[in-house]
Task: structure prediction
Amino acid sequence: MATKILNTTIEVYDPTGPLELTQTHAPRLDTLAGKTVGEVSNGMWEHDRIFPLIRRLLQERYPDIKFVPYTEFPEGSHEIQSERLGELAKQKGCQAVITGNAG
Result:
């Protein structure tokens, strides 16, 4: 889709289109109600603003959801890819993890 604004053309791609999942790393949860979700930052972009926003929006939808904040996990893309991150999330009782937030 292209839009012309002030003699400038901006082309925007719709990211909501179909996506074929070819590999999953864990079974999908049927709900986040009552679950504990870990927040893992890649340190790339305003995680101190984004994670609280995501947290608030999910709490509105799932009032009994719990979070392990990004401050309780190592930060950085090399840490996100680390095998020990999964173990750390399990130790903290996480059933789901939100990773990264920009890149």
Summary: The chain is about 25% helix and 20% strand. The helical segments are 47-61, 77-80, 83-91.
